[in-house]
Amino acid sequence: MGPLRRVLADLGAGRNLEIYLTALIALVVGVLGVFSVVRTEVVAAATLATLAVMAVNALTPRHQVADLDERVAELGRLVERRINGDVSADAVLTTVKQGLEQRIAQGDDIRLVGVTLSRTIRNHFVDLESRLRQGATVKVLLIDPERGIPQEAARRSTVPDHPEIFENRVRSTIDLLRQLALAPGARLEVRFTGFVPAFGLAMVDPDTRDGVIHVELGTHHSAGPDPVFTLAAGRDHRWYGHFMTEFEHMWEHGRPAAESDGFP
Hints:
Blueprint: H1 3-13, H2 17-34, H3 40-83, H4 100-106, E1 109-113, H5 118-123, H6 125-133, E2 137-143, H7 149-156, H8 164-181, E3 187-193, E4 199-204, E5 212-217, E6 228-232, H9 237-252, E7 255-256
Parallel strand pairs: 1-2, 2-3
Antiparallel strand pairs: 1-4, 3-7, 4-5, 5-6
Helix pairs in contact: 2-3, 4-6, 7-8
């Protein structure tokens, strides 16, 4: 790119305006001084003002470099703490599945694992139905409402006298899943596990390079949301593969939903 085109590009994008303004002022004052259009005192004052503007402009890159150095140093300290194992769990754990709603709304392969999944299916029902209508595959694994599994879930949640809580939740989820199964051409697979999962999974396009897995750690008794951490296919190779294998193992041993469960 030639000098003139570069100047025009900078002006069009609003870049380096202070430099061009300073150069213009210096040029005008110099020309006026040569032809004695203005007095010498005015030229001297304008020159000093121009030098002041140039000095201030020269400070900006230095400040930017100083800020960059500080950020690099902070990043270095963070990396060192991570290597030494001195990183807060808050850097890994959160209470929300960040970006899950958007990923589900665009996903082609969605897999969900949980105890009852009542909140998950309810919150994402519209997006799941939309994706099923557009040919996406959805796999859902939750506890079997029979075989005493709700009782086991109640014991693990320290409310052993109220298994109906979990039974009602899982049956409510099953009702929603039956509705999803009615979507034209729905590729919905539902299976029931004969044990209470130790964690929940929300997986979107897990077999692709930009796949993501949200792992929710179950708690025995908590009034708030459970802790969550997120794994990316292109970043967390070891643990991403670990939870992929976990899903496949649980799915393989799950009982497929049948007509007796109200599914077509």
